[in-house]
């Protein structure tokens, strides 16, 4: 049996970095062999550097405790002994762009949770069940970066996972207009209630930059691969409001949608139930068996009860009904730090490996 691929986590001390570490414990294809963070954390063991900062309810995996944290800006050193990198850093956009390109230029695949490269034309932004064909653009990117093996692939913003899969399953009916309101958990801001007490008993009707992402990123996901890179789709028109709610994990979306050709309710339910993508065909280790689960109960899905469906990699829908102004309305839910962040990125890495884009160095 071939050896596991060695994964580096750049930004390993943050909340998404911690999720990567937890998800890769016992992963059949990848193992964490390097962790990098700011110069402040470098030179300590991971256990020391994350002391008092480990935010997950599961304990820190034993296999990472003694890894010496490296300085993420020392790109050649970090990249030297890894086959791929997962990146989730808190820096300025331009700095992240440059850092990720520097890693890719070392010949290392970079799978990023950051938004910096989401609109770089030759960087694929992927939800593996929806647009796996966008990986083709990696060939163009490798030419630009002057590397045969390195590249950057990114995942989209966490909010869109709660409604884009449900709309994508109905694409043959051409959704034309979408109104979405997202109710987003505090972990999306990298916080817990302990470090964000303002969120107890409170709702904040603003998340910087989130509405633009929620309206525009789906169009890139539904875009096509052209000579100039990924060209975004023109339809549907999406308008959104994004609201922070006092929930630990799980982003919910309330959606109104009209179609060019209106499907029946039965057609929608059948399409949601039967929808499968490339991860399910390839039986990737993190792929949910059932991607979209519809709840018949009027009070479901609920964030607390249903966010962990399919190990946090499934998407749930509910309350589908006809609407007076639009064709239909429904709600969607996804786990923002699993499917919407680290889990989504691990699934992209699995797809990249299965399709031959990531090899042992
Ligand atoms: N920007 C989101 C995080 C998703 O990637 C949020 O603030 O919830």
Structure description:
- A six-stranded parallel sheet has the order 3-2-1-4-5-6, with helices on both faces.
- A hairpin with a 2-residue loop joins strand 8 and strand 9.
- The chain folds into two domains: 5-155 and 342-355, Rossmann fold; 160-334, 2-Layer Sandwich (Dihydrodipicolinate Reductase, domain 2), CATH 3.30.360.10.
- 28% of the residues lie in helices and 22% in strands.
- The model has no long low-confidence stretch (mean pLDDT 97).
- It has helices spanning 15-24, 46-49, 62-65, 75-80, 93-105, 138-145, 164-168, 210-221, 265-274, 278-281, 303-306, 309-312, 338-354; strands at residues 5-10, 30-37, 70-71, 84-87, 109-112, 151-154, 175-184, 224-226, 229-231, 237-244, 251-259, 292-295, 315-322, 328-334.
- The protein is an alpha/beta fold and 361 residues long.
- The protein is built from 13 helices and 14 strands.
């Amino acid at each position: 049996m071939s050896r596991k691929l060695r994964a580096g986590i750049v930004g390993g001390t943050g909340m998404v970095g911690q999720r990567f570490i937890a998800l890769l414990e016992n992963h059949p294809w990848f193992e964490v062999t390097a962790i990098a963070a700011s110069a402040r954390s470098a030179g300590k063991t991971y256990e020391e550097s994350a002391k008092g900062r480990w935010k997950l309810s599961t304990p820190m995996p034993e296999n990472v405790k003694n890894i010496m944290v490296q300085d993420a800006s020392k790109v050649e050193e970090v990249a030297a002994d890894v086959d791929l990198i997962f990146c989730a850093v808190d820096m300025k956009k331009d700095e992240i762009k440059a850092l990720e390109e520097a890693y890719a230029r070392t010949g290392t695949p970079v799978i990023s949770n950051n938004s910096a490269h989401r609109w770089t034309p030759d960087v694929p932004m992927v939800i593996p069940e929806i647009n796996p064909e966008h990986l083709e653009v990696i060939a163009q990117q490798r030419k630009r970066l002057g590397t045969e093996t390195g590249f950057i692939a990114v995942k989209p913003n966490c909010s869109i996972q709660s409604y884009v899969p449900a709309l994508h399953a109905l694409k043959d009916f051409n959704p034309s207009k979408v109104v979405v309101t997202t109710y987003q958990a505090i972990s999306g801001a990298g916080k817990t209630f302990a470090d964000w007490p303002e969120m107890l008993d409170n709702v904040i009707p603003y998340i910087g930059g989130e509405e633009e992402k929620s309206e525009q990123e789906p169009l890139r996901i539904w875009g096509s691969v052209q000579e100039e890179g990924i060209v975004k789709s023109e339809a549907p028109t999406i308008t959104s409001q994004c609201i922070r709610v006092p929930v630990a994990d799980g982003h919910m979306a309330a959606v109104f949608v009209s179609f060019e050709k209106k499907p029946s309710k039965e057609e929608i339910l059948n399409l949601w139930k039967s929808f499968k993508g490339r991860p399910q065909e390839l039986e990737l280790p993190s792929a949910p068996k059932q991607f979209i689960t519809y709840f018949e109960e009027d009070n479901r899905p609920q964030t607390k009860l249903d966010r962990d469906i399919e190990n946090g990699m499934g998407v749930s829908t509910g309350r589908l009904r006809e609407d007076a102004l639009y064709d239909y309305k429904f709600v969607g839910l996804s786990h923002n730090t699993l499917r919407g962040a680290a889990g989504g990125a691990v699934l992209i890495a699995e797809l990249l490996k299965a399709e031959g884009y990531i090899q042992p160095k």
